[in-house]
Each structure stands twice: as structure tokens, then as C-alpha cells.
Amino acid sequence: MNSQSAFAAALLTPELPCPSGLKTWNGSDPAVRFAVYRNNVTVSLVDALAANFPVLQALVGEAFFRAMAKAFVQANPPRHRIMAFYGLGFADFVATFAPAGSVPYLGDVARLEMARVQAYHAADVAPLEPQALQAALVDPETLMSLQLVLHPSVMVIESAFAIFSLWAAHQGVLSLASVDPDVAQTALVYRHALNVDTMELAGSVGQFISALNASQTLVDAAGLASHDPAFDLTQALALLIRLQLITHLTYITTGDLQHEHTH
Amino acid sequence: MPNQSDAVSPTPGASAHKLPTRAGVGLKPEHFQEILATQPDIGFFEVHAENYMVPGGPFHHYLTRIRESYPLSMHGVGLSIGADAPLDTRHLNALAALLNRYQPQSFSEHLAWSTHGDTFFNDLLPLPYNTATLRRVCNHIDQAQSHLGWRMLLENPATYVEFAASTWDEGAFLTEVVRRTGCGLLLDLNNVHVGSVNHQHDAHAAIRAMPLAHVGEIHLAGFAAQTDGNGDVLLIDSHGAPVTQVVWDLYDYTLGLTGDKPTLLERDNNIPDWQVLLAEANLAQQHMRLSRLCKPSPDAIFKASSQVKRPASEVAA
């Protein structure tokens, strides 16, 4: 009875027949005209993915990318109305997309690109004054419970592949031919003012930042990263300060309650 | 920033917000910096509301600065007013937040649907025009206008099929929607042209059948052409090409009936350099100037609307 159900179902399932009840002035097959809607829906969603994953498209070529994106669109149409974030599940889809099985790093490259999209649109939060962090670090009373809140754009992507180099090779920074994809890399994505930046991190520094992002205390995050003898907490903090990625300080209280010390 | 809609009762007929009677252009991220740097003389900008439903970053940065210098039209593409399902309250809340933040001069949406169940199709899908859909569309517009505290303009769609279940023509349907809800009309003349070719009816009659006294804005855009199953021309509302002469002619005709109206040049695909869009907006501005010189008789609207026979509400399908 619900005509929109039939119309909607046929939009994303090409095997379904054209919905009934459609008219054309010249008696021509309505399916040809319905195909315009089918095409508009699919193409607009594939275009939305293409806009968010340019490096992925460059790596596999436009034809392969669009076929892969179309398969994703048909299986995972948008569940919300904001196209900027369409494709949050695309990396997982790509990683298990059988025809792309010979290129194992595609999923992680997609994760990096989606992180850049999220960073671009992340909330605007002012960085903490460096003096506030300095003061917090020299207070032995509270150091153990100190948490660093990072800018909402900050994301760390760990990979068994050279995702930073693969991405950078498409920014004119280095040549793709020189990249060995089978080198594990960790990438940091963040936005400074209006620009999204991406840089390579040592794996332990990535784990440190990820732990901070997961609301671990500074001390616990540093402990986690210190399995790597090369991890240097001072340098890691200097990096966060230099990139202006710390926005707030909070403290875990004994009752595990948090209260905020703002700048 | 005070919310004007809090200060007045959300009477749909109240027009506290009004676009200037000039040409405007759809705002594209590609042009943010050039617009800020050159401060072009243009009537207003229009944005798709959903593109700005993001927490922060460059989109809000640039729109905030551009809004400081220009009137703004907030054009929604995702409310799904024609859907056979309740409006999404979260989406209405997101719209309300944007309207409060940017205080645009106009808010508009489409006579179409774009959601079904929990799927969003990112396209403007057609609906039959009959008593049941009229009631549903009016209920949704009433709900949106009272939730948002904002009178909306409703845009006529570009369509590729017609429905056996339709018992009203589009102009009569929109006239009744406007009468019942107090919303205004966003008259998309490219959509009128596309529909007149795709369904082989007279574009001028289709324009005269619209609630022309309630036009708050006109849209102009380009289209693409393909063929249908019989090899007849089928026009696609692509927003990817310059406005064609036939649509400029419909624009002149419409201005003769309505007088000058805020007019948007829409371009969402194949986006050219800013100067190209600015030149097209200036062309629309010239059409407005010429239409004033041509001086349509003051009762043109009245005469035109009296020529339109009120369509029987039950036309044989």
C-alpha cells in the first residue's frame, strides 16, 4: 500500500522492478525515467565518497573506486542526512572488499582520509596556554590524576602499512615508487586553525596520544608508551604543545569524578 | 545573539525576514576566500543547510564572516517534507540551531521526499499530488514552521515521472499548500522548464498556475538532456551548466507577472570560477532592470491569475 516503500526499495536495488503507478506523457517505459532517480541517488552518494577519499581513488583508479563505492552505497546507504560524514564505514568495507584483496593497505588509507574529513569539520576549541600545563606538571599533589584533553580534531591511525607515505605520495611530497607499503606507520591527523595536517609519528607516541584521547591520565598514557625505550615523554609533550593540541586539563579525583581546570 | 523568532509569535505569515530583491549566488567552499577577499557586489548568498550541520571548522569560519557582509538564504535539502513518515525532530533541531546561529533572511525547503525508514537518499524524490499527500505536506510544513518559528518557502521540484495517483496539477497543489500553511513559494524556473519538457505541458501556463503572489525567491539553473524510452527528450535538473535562453525567457515572463524577486543562480556541479557565477548573477540583475523598464501593467498578476482556471480537484488520472 505504501508507494514510497516500493519506490525507495527500488532506488538502491537494481534487481527490483520499477515501482508501479508511474505515468509518462508519451506512454514510454517509466522504468527508463525511474532510472534517472536511481542514477541520481547512486551517483550523488558515490560522488560524496569520492570527495572524501581522493587518495583511495588515486590508488585504485577512478573506475575501480566508483564500482567499489557503488557496492558500498547499495549495501550501506546513508543513515543520516549530513553528507560530510558519509563513509564512516567505508574503510571497513574497503578492507574486506574481496576484489581489492590484493591491496591490503586500502582500508587503512581510507581510515586516514576519513580522519582528515572529521578533523576538517571538528569543533573549534582554543588551545590551552602552555603556562597552564607547565604549572600542572610541577604540582606533585595532582600530577598522578592529571588528564590532558586534546583538540577534537586529533586522531591517531596505526597501521601495519606505510599509510603516511602512501598518503604523502599523493600530496606531491614524495614519489609513490619510493614507498614500500609493507612498513608499519602511525599517522597523526589534526586541525590547526583552518588547516588539517597529517604527520607521521613513532608508534609509541601514537599510542601515547591515543591513550590521552581515550581519557587515560597523563601518567598512565606515558606508562603505556614507555614499553618503547625510545619514547620520551618530554618530547611527546613538547610536540603536543608545539602543535597546540592540548585544550583543557582535567583531574581524576579519588572518586573517579572529573572536574575541569580550564585555561 | 537574540533569536528574533522568540520575540514574535511564530506566525507563518510574518515576514520579519526578507531577502533583498536582487540576484544572489549559491555559496561554494571553492569560492569562500575569493568572496572574502574581493567583497563582490551581490544581493545575497544561499547555502544548503545540511552542509553546515557540522560541529566547527572552515565551513562555519567562512560562512560566519561572509554572513557579516551579506544577506543569507538557508536552503534545506534534507527535511523530507513529502515523506510518508513523521518529520525527524533531530533534523528540525539541527535546522533551528543553524537558523538561530546565522539569522538568515530566508529559509526554504522542497516539495519532495529524501528519506524512507532510516535511509537518506540524498536526492529530491517526487510524490503524487492528491488529497492525502496535500494533507501530509501541509501537516509537515505546519510542524516545521511552528518548530522553527520561521516561515518557509517551498520549492517546486524537477520531476522525471508523473503519478497515476495524482489528482491535482502542481500549481494548484502548491497554491493550496501556500493557502493552508502560510508558507511562501520558491519558484524554480529551471524545474518548471524541465517539467514542461518531461511531461509535455505549457511552461507559461504552469507558471501562471503557481501561487505567484507568494513568491519569495526565484531559482535559476542549468539542465542536462537525455532521452526517455521512446527516444523523446528527457531533461535532468543537473545544476551543472549555465542558465539557458529558454529559462531566461521564462524568467522575463515571470518578472512581468510578479515584479522583481530575489533570484538565485544555482550551481552545484561543474562549479566554475567565481567570476563566471558573478557574471551570471549580474545577468539576472540586468533582466530585472529590463523588466522594470518594460513596465508590466500593475495588475498583471491579477490578470494572469484570473486566466488560470481553478483545476478541478479530481482530474481523471
Describe the structure.
The complex is a heterodimer of chains A (263) and B (317). Chain A is an alpha+beta fold and 263 residues long. Chain A is 45% helix and 14% strand. In chain A, the strands form two sheets. Chain A has a three-stranded antiparallel β-sheet with strand order 2-6-7, with helices on one face. In chain A, strands 3-4-5 form a three-stranded antiparallel β-sheet, sandwiched between helices. In chain A, strand 4 and strand 5 form a beta hairpin. Chain A is elongated and about 80 Å long. The relative contact order of chain A is 0.10. The N terminus and C terminus of chain B are likely disordered. Chain B has one domain: Divalent-metal-dependent TIM barrel enzymes (TIM Barrel). Chain B has 317 residues and is an alpha/beta fold. The relative contact order of chain B is 0.14. Chain B is globular, with a radius of gyration of 19 Å. Chain B has eleven helices and 13 strands. Chains A and B meet through helix 1, strand 1, helix 2 and helix 6 of A and helix 3, strand 5, strand 6 and strand 8 of B. Strand 1 of chain A pairs antiparallel with strand 8 of chain B, so a sheet runs across the interface.
Element-level helix/strand string of chain B: HEHEHEHEEEHEEHEHHEEEHEHH
Domain tally of chain B = 1
Q: What would you call the shape of chain B?
A: globular
What is the rounded Rg of chain B? 19 Å
Low-confidence runs of chain B = 1-16, 305-317
Q: Which shape of chain A, going by the Cα principal axes?
A: elongated
**Estimated structural class of chain B:** alpha/beta
- Which quaternary structure do these chains form? heterodimer
From N to C, what is the helix and strand string of chain A?
A: HEHHHHHHEEHEEHHHEE
